[in-house]
Write a structure and sequence with these properties.
The complex is a heterodimer of chains A (about 120) and B (about 110). By secondary structure, chain A is an all-beta fold. Chain A is about 0% helix and about 45% strand. Chain A starts with a strand and ends with a strand. Chain B is globular, with a radius of gyration of 13 Å. In chain B, about 35% of the residues are buried. Helix content of chain B is about 0%, strand content about 50%. Classes of the chains: A mainly beta (about 120), B mainly beta (about 110).
Chain lengths: ~120, ~110
């Protein structure tokens, strides 16, 4: 597709359920980021991939959060045993180059996760 | 750690009014600075950026100047339009693409 695609657009989970959020970056993009955006807040960094390598996962809030990008294209963010505080919009972004001097990031529309 | 502070919204203006959205930052090094915009129902889009002190970023009539002495990157537009209604995020990045965002400022422009 022409842009970064995320699915599902909305996800409702019961507390304790596991969820998986998918990101399809722009074809050929090397870098992929996940951000978490709580209501009324700015996005916060979760993790970064360069191709299939996860180079930075310092923003993942707990060991319940896990991300992968096994073939260097599609990425999945998995949240185990969801809690109410996990309710947020999860944003994926990609760029054509490895990190440099402000290489342009392209963001998806996000997955809105609501944990009841 | 690095942080970005921007003015709270909403900012409500009439069409053709002058816009300023304040943004200040705290960083240990020499960050690149960005403004992103989020239109209703759409993903974040890069509006403009500046990578070093005194640089001016500009796009679609918006502009912002990287002021190292005041650690600021205020967004301005001379004449806003209804179509500019959106949420605007100031952000910084230090040598790596991990962005640190402010909390966002909602702009509402009425005809």
């Amino acid at each position: 597709g022409a842009g970064v695609s995320q699915s599902p657009r909305y996800k409702v989970a019961k507390r304790g359920q596991d969820v998986a959020l998918r990101c399809d970056p722009i074809s050929g993009h090397v870098s992929l980021f996940w951000y978490q955006q709580a209501l009324g807040q700015g996005p916060e960094f979760l993790t970064y991939f360069q191709n299939e390598a996860q180079l930075d996962k310092s923003g993942l809030p707990s060991d319940r959060f896990f991300a992968e990008r096994p073939e260097g294209s599609v990425s999945t963010l998995k949240i185990q045993r969801t809690q109410q505080e996990d309710s947020a919009v999860y944003l994926c972004a990609s760029s054509a180059m490895p990190p440099g001097a402000g290489e342009k990031l392209f963001f998806g529309s996000g997955t809105q996760l609501s944990v009841l | 750690g690095d942080s970005v502070t921007q003015m709270e919204g909403p900012v409500t203006l009439s069409e053709e009014a002058f816009l300023t959205i304040n943004c200040t930052y705290t960083a240990t090094g020499y960050p690149s600075l960005f403004w992103y915009v989020q239109y209703p129902g759409e993903g974040l889009q890069l509006l403009l950026k500046a990578t070093k002190a005194d640089d001016k970023g500009s796009n679609k009539g918006f502009e912002a100047t990287y002021r190292k002495e005041t650690t600021s990157f205020h967004l301005e537009k001379g004449s806003v339009q209804v179509s500019d209604s959106a949420v605007y995020f100031c952000a910084l990045s230090e040598g790596f693409q991990k962005l640190v965002f402010g909390t966002g400022t909602r702009l509402l422009v009425s005809p």
